[in-house]
Amino acid sequence: ATAIQRADYSAPAWWVDSVDLCFDLDPIKTRVLNKMKLRRNTDLPVQALRLDGEELNLARVLVNGQGSTFKMDGNQLVLSNLPDECELEIFTTTCPSKNTKLMGLYVSNDSFFTQCEAEGFRRITYFLDRPDVMAMYSVTLRADKAKYPVLLSNGNLVDSGDLEGGRHFAKWVDPHKKPCYLFALVAGQLVCREQRITTRAGKDHTLQIYVRSGDLDKTEHAMNSLIHSVAWDEARFGLPLDLERFMIVATSDFNMGAMENKGLNIFNTKYVLASQATATDVDFSNIESVVGHEYFHNWTGNRITCRDWFQLSLKEGLTVFRDQEFSTDLAGTASARAVKRIEDVRVLRTNQFPEDAGPMAHPVRPDSYVEISNFYTVTIYEKGAEVVRMYQTLVGRAGFEKGITLYFERHDGNAVTCDDFAQAIADANPSSVLPSLLPQFKRWYSQAGTPRVSAQGVFDAASQTYTLTFSQHCAATPGQTEKLPFVIPVVLGLLDANGNDLPLQLEGQDEIHTGSQRLVLTEASQSFCFTGVNAEPVPSILRGLSAPVVLAFDYSDAQLLHLLAHDSDPFNRWEAGQRLAVNRATAAINDSSANPAALDAAYIDAMRAVLRHPTLDAAFKELVLTLPSEVYLAEQLTVVDPQRVHTVRQAMREQLAIELKADWETTYAATQETGAYTPDAVSSGKRALCGMALTHLCLAAVAEGNDQWPAIALQRFKNASNMTDRFNALSALVGSGHALAIPALEEFHALFKNEALVLDKWFALQVTAPDVGGNTLPNVKKLMKHSDFSLRNPNRARSVISSYCQANPAGFHRLDAAGYQFWSERVLELDAINPQVAARLARALDRWSKLAEPYRTNARQAIARVAAKSGLSKDTQEVVTRALA
Ligand code: HT7
Ligand code: ZN
């Protein structure tokens, strides 16, 4: 398959001014009539019109009402010698029920849905399927009225009525021009929760959430999240809802989380449906951020869209930043805000940092791709959001808001590039550091890899100075051997012996900062000298993770314990605890003869102090007490033996469980919630800490051969009034390996056999269970034979196969290579059904070259087996080819 190069961009040879689509919906044969008004782009030399199409049956092509000659060039329909302005009519048919790729028009649970981003519209009709072609759309849907009573598309409903033969129609007109990737239609038997709102600007709007009947009682939280999103975007960025009607529709067959189609968002049910009985606190919180994310795309993505798919982070990085800020603002307290930041950083470090160090590493603005679907990555999304966050750090919150306002003044209604965004933020802040640094700052878009910032501090008692010297380095990534220095904002503070922030004054400067100061690194190596420091301070560097980098500082245990106890920045307080744990874990992992129980009294006492702390929030305590994940630990090593990593981490957990047993008991008792269930930050933090206490108490009980806490966990499982408590209790049992887990799992299935999203949890929990005697893989295979399993449903396939391959390192990385064999078979099997799902699973072995032998050789062979298969989709082929390069 050939790679598309960013450098090859050229403007479209034709513009599409309007599109009039008419659908006769039928699962076997849907007829699509596409009437377009076309206009030649007279800025370019005359060129033929080339329209993209995929898996379509072409019946007729008319130009200005007359039959026309055309030719096919691969998947493109080519029309030459067209008048400069013309009306083109294309009539095609497709078979939605056979569409297992879930791109274009497909059937799910007897309803029709579409997914057009990135290149799905070409599976609906022939079109200039690129985001810089923006047109006005009108859409007529016709279908059997009894089977498909609800007919939806983008914009406003302008007409509807009955047709003969039991059919009916609806006509929708979108008042905004849009790229075709934002087109959507939905048809089926759906019910709707509706809410009318009046915004700050005094405009009335109708918000609707469509689901299958029976699910309506699970839409309240999504509706509240939507109402909050509308209000937040107006208040924070002055961006109002620009539609009379805003609709969300949920489907259980969806490749990703959700899709921001103009006025008609389509969501994976996982990010819409929630009730206290079926959804955990984490589900509630994910729904809030995904609803927000898709809603915020209405401006950042839809009103201003991407010129080409290389600019994907223009909308995704910015919109993730916006949804992170939304959830942070909604979280409320300073502590809850910090918890949200820590959670976001954990995602970045455990997913994006490894991507940046692996074979799929790519810049935030990639230079080439084979299949664009493979580039909906954590780099584009999460690292892209960190890049946006750094603008805010450099120009301040008010400056950033001015930048966003200028961005919309300049580019509303257009398809633009990341350069346009950068320029708007810089131009709106002429007196900030940004304009002069902008060309260098933009290296964040062009250079892949995670920079490593090394810092050293020297205290000089005689001159009462403390000098911090920073050096930055970014390792080579595929296709990029040499990297130039990045612009790195470093927010820091210096702690005195009592743990208070020192006033900060840089040598030669008048300004004194209380608390934190923002430095900006631009060179490979740079020093900063703080004056008036009369005793050696403890530096708290990169507060809030002010840049997406790895910080190397040779902290002593005493310094880390000081930061953990006192840092005014809660992020770095948490970070100090993580560093203490990482140091202990990596020392034990690297010395295979060492006792895997790597925790010493100093660490355990520090954790006890956190658990007992009178004022720290439960959610924060839970984060501090959570050991770094196996994936994160593996990233800190040069060579990874996944079994050793697991053994050491597990031994550390058991130590924490046993040594802190009395404190876990106190914590469990202190975190019992009595009032009505609400998924707010404070109550969910309490439930999380309570679940953690129960997990440790069950672990300790099993280690000590005592059944008391497993019995309590079983009772809690049975009596729980919400899914968070119920699932935490079940997980505590399963994770401890206690025999009571078996009846509890059976009961859980019986209780929730009709709740697909809960069954996904049931499957995932079992395949991520401890691998006792190599039993996980046989269990996975058994679960795949369960009557509730289906490979065609992405959520279910991911809950079993991806959870096993990506979230159970010890069960997956087997000495006999059976995990890898299973992985290669499933990748191939899935590739024939749904290449996007297969290609994501294919990435489970991205980090194969870091593995110790024999894992390394076995993993490579498994990847090679997949790569050798003929007829592979370009999605999977790109992933495995890069992995082997
Ligand atoms: N912008 C949406 C992307 C998306 C997508 C991409 C490829 C294949 C299927 C897809 N479904 C949704 C999601 C978002 O970032 O909001
Ligand atoms: Zn998005």
Feature tags:
885 residues; alpha+beta; Immunoglobulin-like; 27 helices; 32 strands; 20% strand; binds (3S)-3-amino-4-(1H-indol-3-yl)butanoic acid; binds zinc ion
Overall 3D shape: globular
Sheet with most strands: 9 strands, mixed
| CATH C-level name of the domain at 1-101 and 113-188 | Mainly Beta
| Strand element count | 32
Helix content: 40-55%
Strand content: 15-25%
Quaternary state of the chains: single chain
Mean pLDDT: 98
In CATH, the architecture of the domain at 1-101 and 113-188 is Sandwich
Distance between the termini: 15 Å
Q: Point out poorly predicted stretches.
A: none
The CATH topology of the domain at 1-101 and 113-188 is Immunoglobulin-like
Bound molecules: (3S)-3-amino-4-(1H-indol-3-yl)butanoic acid, zinc ion
* Discrete helix count: 27
| The named CATH superfamily of the domain at 1-101 and 113-188 | tricorn interacting facor f3 domain
C-alpha Rg (nearest Å): 28 Å
Helix/strand-derived class? alpha+beta
Structure description:
The protein is an alpha+beta fold. Among the domains are: 1-101 and 113-188, Immunoglobulin-like (Sandwich), CATH 2.60.40.1730; 305-446, Neutral Protease Domain 2 (Neutral Protease, domain 2, Orthogonal Bundle), CATH 1.10.390.10; 452-548, Sandwich (Immunoglobulin-like); 753-885, Zincin-like fold (Alpha Horseshoe). The chain contains 27 helices and 32 strands.
